[in-house]
Amino acid sequence: MEHFARTLLLPLLAPLLALGSAAAQCQNPWLSGGPLPGVAGEVFAATAWDPDGSGPAPSVLVAGGRFFVAGGVIANNIAVHDFATNTWSALGSGVDGQVHAIAVMPGGELVVGGAFSTAGGVPAPRRRRRRDRRSASTRGP
């Protein structure tokens, strides 16, 4: 029986032992995967927006919800994804609560609604309009 076990097991185990030694010779280092794509949290609303209207810049994706990071960037509940560069950026300093709705008005203004009281550090009960990436105005109920 012992001879039978050696005769049968040795040919079966030899390839496994060879694989084990081959894996130990691997010289590949760990590589950084970079920031995670998307947002770290929940997205409740998103829309395409062209921040410069008919200007040369392409449209971007604006995402809002309940998150603090987008693509490795701090973005308080609202962020912009630029498809041309495949990067995320914060929309100003964000809002202090959840974003539930995002719309683009006929004039190109971005309107954001949700359960927040400030947007970009400015009091903004429930709604916020944004003319471009730099200027904003508050609209109440």
Could you characterize the architecture of this molecule?
The protein has 141 residues and is α+β, with helices and mostly antiparallel strands. The protein contains one helix and eleven strands. The chain has one helix at residues 2-24, and strands at residues 39-49, 60-70, 73-74, 78-82, 87-90, 98-104, 110-115, 118-119, 122-123, 127-130, 136-138. The strands form three sheets. Strands 1, 2, 3, 4 and 5 form a five-stranded antiparallel β-sheet that branches. Strands 6-7-10-11 form a four-stranded antiparallel β-sheet, with no helix packed on it. The chain starts with a helix and ends with a strand. Residues 131-141 have low confidence and may be disordered.
Low-confidence blocks of residues: 131-141
Largest sheet: 5 strands, antiparallel
Total of helices: 1
End-to-end distance: 88 Å
Shape: globular
Give a count of the beta strands, DSSP E runs of length 2 or more: 11
Structural class: alpha+beta
Kindly report the average pLDDT value.
78
Summarize the helix and strand pattern as letters: HEEEEEEEEEEE
Global Rg: 27 Å
Helix content range: 10-25%
Strand content: 35-45%
Describe how the helices and strands are arranged.
Blueprint: H1 2-24, E1 39-49, E2 60-70, E3 73-74, E4 78-82, E5 87-90, E6 98-104, E7 110-115, E8 118-119, E9 122-123, E10 127-130, E11 136-138
Antiparallel strand pairs: 1-2, 2-3, 2-4, 4-5, 6-7, 7-10, 8-9, 10-11
Features of the shown structure:
globular; 1 helix; five-stranded antiparallel sheet; alpha+beta; four-stranded antiparallel sheet; 141 residues
